Task: structure prediction
Amino acid sequence: MNPRDFDPGAIPAGTKRRLWLEFPAGALELRLPLLVARGAEPGPVLSMTACIHGDEYEGVGAIFDFFETLDPEAITGSVIAAPVANPPAFHAISRTSPLDQANLARVFPGRDDGTPSEALAAVLDGCVIAHASFFLDLHSGGVRYWMPTMAGYYTEDPRSLAAARAFGAPVIWGHPVIPPGRTLSCAQARGIPFLYTEARGAGRIDPADAAVFARGIRNVARYAGVLRDALEPGPKPVHLMGDGNTDRGIEASRDGFLVPEVQPLEAVRKGRRVGRLLDLDGSVIEEYLAPVDGVAAMIRLAPSVRAGEPLFLFAERLAEAA
Ligand SMILES: [Zn+2]
Result:
């Protein structure tokens, strides 16, 4: 189906559809799978994406399970999901696209006549995000990074915090600014409330993370008003605050072998050594110090690093009861 012909209102009430959008992306033709469920009654639209980065699998599996078990007669409104939002990167087991080396989460809202990643972003914006009354973007640490299993929210929108609490992850992380180029900045520009998630990654799906995401999607669907049954509460979350932009973490200044010296969510004082980078003869190239009093909220997993790649991100932990 051409994305221009996609009309969620044309799906018969009380049914589910698996659609493939087909469109030119640069000199290529891309195919994007889309899952759409339309309830018997009109109402809110929950839009979701997963696998914006091609090596992040937790959200893919969770959306597949959610859609498979969803009874469209039992929902109010609609669900629109792109479970594998970046098929070229998925097939390459890569965070970025093999077609243009772009990070899809930096090129939104994209453009129809742009690079392959820009064309893909434009279709995701127009066919998924634009229809939403709530937007959920499912990420993970992927192959190279450890991230906490968490829901990330926008501190300036109370609906985003409410959805983060509803999701029920063990960690919630508030961000005062949403950087440009993301799915979330598209939702923000459209006035649509949103939430994103992370999980532990490492190139596989941990069953505990799968359970958190499965419950989390159902809970966000309840928060959005698409499902009508009661929230399933999660654990009392650790509450982090601060800039979650992985582009601004501690970076390697050269290629090398990373030796992290900090554990996930470990509390550190500003100035403590948290890792070293070794040359391939074992000599120390550089040492990394915690930039703030806080906790390790992102850690590079793969020891092989290239100059310029982010290695660590630290966040403030709120002492108040979350
Ligand atoms: Zn991601």
User: Anything to note?
Assistant: The pocket of zinc ion is lined by residues 52-53, 56, 139 (CB under 6 Å). The chain has a mean pLDDT of 95.
